[in-house]
Design goal:
mainly alpha
Length: 130
């Protein structure tokens, strides 16, 4: 089946994208709270190096392979999660800019899909109603 590009219509799954973003936000908030707890514990450390991690990223990075690398490990995990979140957010915002198909365009596509010489009832079951 070959669909003419002028009648290609795709769902944006806005509710699912929003749910995905909210899940990532919740995970980031948890990670942010965990980092604050790690920093609070570290600031009370008897080790002057550990107590300064929140202000000295070079020292924290240089000691990343030691037992007291919780700050660094958490920041790396947060960075990875932020990349995932920012990518998903940018994609959702970009999708939000796309124009909705007109009722005429939707009807034309549905008619095209139903014709044996065109779409030949390509979509079945639940996909038919999307």
């Amino acid at each position: 089946m070959s669909l003419p590009p002028e009648i290609a219509i795709f769902r944006r799954f806005q509710a699912l994208n929003t749910t995905h973003l909210l899940r990532l936000q919740a995970e980031l908030q948890d990670m942010e709270r965990e980092l604050a707890e790690i920093r609070s514990d570290g600031s009370h450390s008897a080790d002057p190096v550990c107590s300064g991690y929140a202000r000295d990223f070079r020292t924290m990075r240089d000691r990343k392979d030691t037992e007291d690398s919780l700050d660094y490990d958490q920041l790396i995990a947060i960075g990875n999660k932020l990349r995932e979140y920012n990518t998903a957010l940018a994609q959702a915002l970009e999708l939000g800019k796309t124009a909705k198909p007109s009722p005429r365009e939707v009807k034309y596509l549905r008619d095209w899909l139903a014709r044996p010489s065109m779409g030949n009832d390509f979509l079945n079951d639940i996909e038919r109603s999307t």
